Structures are given as C-alpha cells and as structure tokens.
C-alpha cells in the first residue's frame, strides 16, 4: 500500500530512502486522481523495490509547491534525494514503471 507522506515524514521517507520513490500528488476531490489511484496501489503492491507515497496537495501545499506541482495528478520519481522523472495527468501503468527505471 502507498504510504501517506507529510511534511513531517518527507525527509525520512523520501529524501533518505534507499529505494527509488514514486510520489503521487493528488487531492480527494480530483476525478483523474481517483482514476490513477488503483494503478498507484497496484505498483506499490507488486514492486517492493519501489517506495510509493501519496501526498495530498490540500493538506501539504508546501510539498506541492516545492515540486512545482501546478496540476494534479502529478507523479514525481526521486532517487537518492533527487528528482529524476515527473509527469502530469493519468498515465498508464507501463509508462509509470518506465519512469522509475
């Protein structure tokens, strides 16, 4: 299951992670975010080598701003504390997995 990431847990869970991290920036009211959510959960369940986190942009506006998230859903891949890939909008599972590799 994807972990809920907050400002308080961000450094430990994301920046200091020894695995690649897939972040899903979303909001509860966002229709496309709800469409993408099952795909994100599938990736979390099927790929233990990837840390998957969800960030609610309404609850964590500072994190959204720091990654320049203007539209949601937005996906950001972080490896060793650095952003290596990002996308906006609903993406197919295969495309998301390619971003992580």
UniProtKB/TrEMBL annotation:
Residues annotated as site: Deprotonates C-terminal active site Cys: 24
What this protein is called in its record is Thioredoxin
Q: Which keywords label this protein?
A: Disulfide bond, Electron transport, Redox-active center, Transport
Q: Name one GO molecular function term.
A: protein-disulfide reductase activity
Highest taxon listed in the record's lineage:
Bacteria
User: Which residue intervals define the domain Thioredoxin in the entry?
Assistant: 1-101
| NCBIfam families for this protein | thioredoxin
The record's family statement is: Belongs to the thioredoxin family.
Q: Where is the active site?
A: 30, 33
Give any Pfam family that matches: Thioredoxin
The Gene Ontology CC terms held by the record are:
cytosol
**What is the gene called?**
trxA
Marked site, Contributes to redox potential value, at 31-32
* Disulphide bridges, residue numbers: 30-33
**InterPro entries registered for this protein in UniProt:** Thioredoxin, Thioredoxin-like_sf, Thioredoxin_CS, Thioredoxin_domain
């Amino acid at each position: 299951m994807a972990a809920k990431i907050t400002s308080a847990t961000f450094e430990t869970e994301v920046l200091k992670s020894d695995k690649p991290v897939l972040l899903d920036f979303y909001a509860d009211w966002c229709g496309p975010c709800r469409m993408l959510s099952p795909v994100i959960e599938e990736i979390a369940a099927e790929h233990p080598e990837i840390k998957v986190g969800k960030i609610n942009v309404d609850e964590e506006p500072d994190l959204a701003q720091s990654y320049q998230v203007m539209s949601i859903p937005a996906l950001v891949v972080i490896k060793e504390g650095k952003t290596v890939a990002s996308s906006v909008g609903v993406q197919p599972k295969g495309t998301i997995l390619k971003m992580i590799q």
